[in-house]
Design brief:
The complex is a heterodimer of chains A (about 110) and B (about 110). Chain A is built from no helices and 11 strands. With about 110 residues, chain A is an all-beta fold. In chain A, the strands form 2 sheets. In chain A, strands 2, 4, 5, 9, 10 and 11 form a 6-stranded mixed sheet that branches. In chain A, strands 1-3-8-7-6 form a 5-stranded antiparallel sheet, with no helix packed on it. Chain B starts with a strand and ends with a strand. The chains are: A mainly beta (about 110), B mainly beta (about 110).
């Protein structure tokens, strides 16, 4: 079975500081990994995805994530936080043996202080 | 514009009533999903469908029903058997049920039992 753990339900950073949101996965098959962002009362928008090509994945809005198989991690980073980055972020995993179903983590709420 | 449309955005239900949430997509996607979102619990899969006239239970299907009579439409009925229906409901679609294909989400329906 596959699962995702997001460390920290709430992360707070200052504007201009590094953003680091942690995601660890468990999977018995090569995983496909995704990061989504959700603004209040809206749906989810894809930030980036890993599908076994390059291990460093660049996404929208300056975010990137690195797939580390040895650490079973797929942490999301952004060098400099902006006020507009305040939102909830979800890590998700799927695999060819799961019928394409996405399994989501609990979510991390990011706050950005001026 | 292509996308997923959920309606209504807000829905109020009296206890003991069935309500149906609408989800329509014009992306020509084969797969569609319904997720339930509660604070601090991430997204949990209710039902999913790979093809017209076929659907599968997700992790929390009890008290819910779906139909897939058309490729574009995947309505969700919340029945009176669902004991705690107040939540944010998200519909999604993807090209197929393959693990590497990302899901596209609607804007959600917030259901409140009064």
């Amino acid at each position: 079975a596959q699962s995702v753990t997001q460390l920290g339900s709430h992360v707070s950073v200052s504007e201009g500081a590094l953003v680091l949101l942690r995601c660890n996965y468990s999977s018995s098959v090569p995983p496909y990994l995704f990061w989504y962002v959700q603004y209040p009362n809206q749906g989810l928008q894809l930030l980036l995805k890993y599908t076994s090509a390059a291990t460093l994945v660049k996404g929208i809005n300056g975010f990137e994530a690195e797939f580390k198989k040895s650490e079973t991690s797929f942490h999301l980073t952004k060098p400099s936080a902006h006020m507009s980055d305040a939102a909830e972020y979800f890590c998700a995993v799927s695999g060819d043996n799961q019928g394409g179903k996405l399994i989501f983590g609990q979510g991390t709420e990011l706050s950005v202080k001026p | 514009d292509g996308g997923i449309t959920q309606s209504p955005k807000y829905l109020f239900r009296k206890e003991g009533q069935n309500v149906t949430l609408s989800c329509e997509q014009n992306l020509n996607h084969d797969a569609m999903y319904w997720y339930r979102q509660d604070p601090g619990q991430g997204l949990r899969l209710i039902y999913y469908s790979q093809i017209v006239n076929d659907f599968q239970k997700g992790d929390i299907a009890e008290g819910y029903s779906v139909s897939r009579e058309k490729k574009e439409s995947f309505p969700l009925t919340v029945t009176s058997a669902q004991k705690n229906p107040t939540a944010f409901y998200l519909c999604a679609s993807s090209i197929s049920l393959g693990g590497r294909t990302e899901a596209f989400f609607g804007q959600g329906t917030r259901l409140t039992v009064v």
